Amino acid sequence: MKDLKGxxxxxxxxxxxxxxxNREDEITTIWKILEKDNVLLKAPRRFGKSSIMNKLxxxxxxxxxxxxxxxxxxxxxxxxxxxxxxxxxxxxFFQKHFRTFSKMMNDLVSRIEVSAGYDGMPDVRIKIKESLxxxxxxxxxxxxxxxxxxxxxxxxxxxxxxELIKNIERxxxxxxxxxxxxxxxxxxxxxxxxxxxWLVGGSIGIEHLLQKIEAGTKTINDFSTYRxxxxxxxxxxxxxxxxxxxxxxxxxxxNSILDKLIxxxxxxxxxxxxxxxxxxxxxxxxxxxxxxxxxxxxxxxxENVLGPTxxxxxxxxxxxxxxxxxxxxxxxxxxxxxxxARKYEVKKTExxxxxxxxxxxxxxxxxxxxxxxxxxNDFYISYKNESDSYYFTLKILRDWWLRYYDLxxx
Length: 410
Fold this sequence. Notes:
By secondary structure, the chain is of the alpha/beta class. 53% of the residues lie in helices and 14% in strands. The protein starts with 23 loop residues before the first helix and ends in a 5-residue tail after the last helix.
């Protein structure tokens, strides 16, 4: 019978409760930063960013009221403001102070629908008036300005802010996207709202997006950046042991097997640990074995993890390049990544020479610098200072890239 304690396989969803593994130090550090600053939480997809945000939301520090909003599907400034209203109404604290907001609501909202949410909390749907669409900056400032009267500290958590900016730019144009960024910064700078903190996150490099729309990094320079990293090696080992105990009732795991699992994928990212371990345990059971071996892990890795049925685990790493870059830069990025994957490690000068050759003079040194920074921020590659070279950060991603996308023309 399985031990009910410990983490289970949670691949792709938010990890909660016992499935949220050993990020206490990160949580403590983030809360410490939030005492004085706003936080920009940076991480690629599948690195646990949303799970960390959810933990901050569900287990706030004493004295904080916390709101959480995934902004990925929003596409207009007034939708962002509406989401803030919805979050405020969903909190019982603000329901007690509804009269404070009633006049403001009458000015901004034409209809409010409240129903029971899946978690027992109210699910608030708001239809805004047309006036908010044309006067969102002033009305939004007035709305958030009402929060200055509360003694409690307030934290707004916004996931996928870069996607919101990108969506605004696509729907309303570059000028509106810049106006929103400038407005949002002015809100954060209001001295009377010193009780409010903002934690925003994104799985794409926001600097590239700001450069693309010509907004400049000054619109986010008041954030303290915190980067979500892989687990430490020892924590990765403990995570594997806890998963094996919970999922397979295996109490003891040799160091050689732990080394094999970690070395196969590279830095211990929980998402990729779960993928290889799940497939390895499946292969172990299929063979009727009672423990893992190097041979079982290799077979599971080569035939299942990197196999066609598992492409969905990784495909977004390829597809996002198309979503993120113009076609010319997309093609160059894929060619550079293929070169690094083929050679494992490539000097910066060699990559710049290839970049210049492919671009045929269309792009300059600054474009190369931004591209390499973006690929590094998105955790495709890492920079080795001692050799002035780049390499694939994750072995598992390099192996997958070579298997499916080592087809770029020389």
